[in-house]
Amino acid sequence: LMSEIDTIKLRDDVTLADEQLFALIERVRKHETIYKQAGAVHGCALATRQGEILMFVEDVGRHNAVDAIAGFMWLEDIDGSDKVFYTTGRLTSEMVIKCAQMRIPFLVSRSGLTQMGYQIAQKTGITMLGRASGRHYLAFTGRQRLLRTAPQPTALA
After folding, report:
1. Which one, of 16, 59, 53, 48, lies nearest residue 31 by Cα?
2. Which value, to the nearest 10 degrees, does the dihedral of the CA atoms of residues 54, 48, 118, 62 take?
3. How far is CA 21 from CA 27, 38, 82, 113, in A?
4. Could you give the 3-state DSSP secondary structure of residue 46?
5. What is the pLDDT of residues 16-67, one digit of tens each?
6. 60 backbone dihedrals φ, ψ, rounded to 5°
7. How many whole angstroms separate alpha carbon 5 and alpha carbon 51?
């Protein structure tokens, strides 16, 4: 897998405005989910940069949810090069590798990341955003693709 990662080149001409990201986070939050009823599942979404959810999958196994979206993309011949991948799970090396294989430049999680996930995201050029909730996120890699359009909070003196 690591030798394949060395050959992956993601588009660098696509951007994501923070308002688009916030719209996606809100749509995912409002999405009716098994998690809200039962808990203990992972959710993943494939979305456009405008925040439209193309597919939402929940599963007890986070890899099953990712793989279901990868299969959907393959069956429907969906180009990932301008899409956003959202997950509730940690951004591990496996999650980053799968996102890179789908050629998706934006990887977003409401959770955190692992060191190896961070290193692979840097290597592949993925814009990796974690702790995404409400109107907040942490940009770990690929900041050059992010556009700040929303007013930024300021500290009061």
Report:
1. 53
2. -10
3. 10, 27, 13, 18
4. strand
5. 999 999 999 999 888 767 766 666 788 899 999 999 999 999 888 888 899 9
6. -70, -25
7. 27
